[in-house]
Amino acid sequence: MDPYLFETLWPSLLGVAGMTAAMVWGFFKIKKLIQEDQPK
Length: 40
Fold this sequence. Notes:
Elements: H1 3-37
């Protein structure tokens, strides 16, 4: 794996990881809100 390939792949991998983390965080946030809303 040469440095050029690493430099071009790194930002996109970071973007994908960030988007995945945001989706997982959002999923748990919504799940928690739904659970809090149910007893009413």
